[in-house]
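PROTEIN DATA CARD
Card holder: OmpA family protein
Chain length: 222
Origin: Roseovarius pelagicus
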Amino acid sequence: MIRATKPILFLAASSLALVSACSEPDHLQGSGTDPNRQAKNGALIGGVLGALTGAVASDKKGKGAVIGGAIGALGGAAIGNALDKQEAELRRDLENDRVKITNTGDRLIVTLPQDILFAVDSSAVNSSLRGDLLTVANSLQSYPDSTVQVVGHTDNTGEAGYNQSLSERRANAVADVLMDGGVGFSRIQTFGRGEDQPIGSNLTPEGRAQNRRVEIVILPTS
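Structure generated from the sequence above:
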């Protein structure tokens, strides 16, 4: 058992070194300098996971690691490439520069500030943002191999129970527009997080504005 474990650990360490070597330097992360960055990282990370899985599953540990690594790399590259393309198309087609797109390599997160989405204390989507949401819906139809999570967030102003309810209603309102745009009901999940997941300080107006948001999380399924 000990002899079989060593090649696995060596392969994992070697693959992780490749990930570090091929990733963008820290100061370029998210700069958009490499349009295929997530495809490359997906291939490498997929290779690591595939190698480990293949090694564990195979009686011939070395052969299983190689085969698993190859399969994992192909799958990871395909997902990363699709996310890179979808990200680029969304950046091209969305008309509001305050809509933020984050590509983590295994998902896309489209973040919409609530002050452009909704009037104060309202869960009715502003007509000016409906077009951008329909653009996201068109993208989701072009890339059908994904599920979608719509997550509402608030700041901590007001009563926590009310904020929770408001975040749920707003997430549902965004999901309704996506479904109006043709996205299947079965692909969408909605969540309200209320004030529980801030990304900025609730002690400042700027931080509270960051916390009031709806996130559309696109998760590839294959």
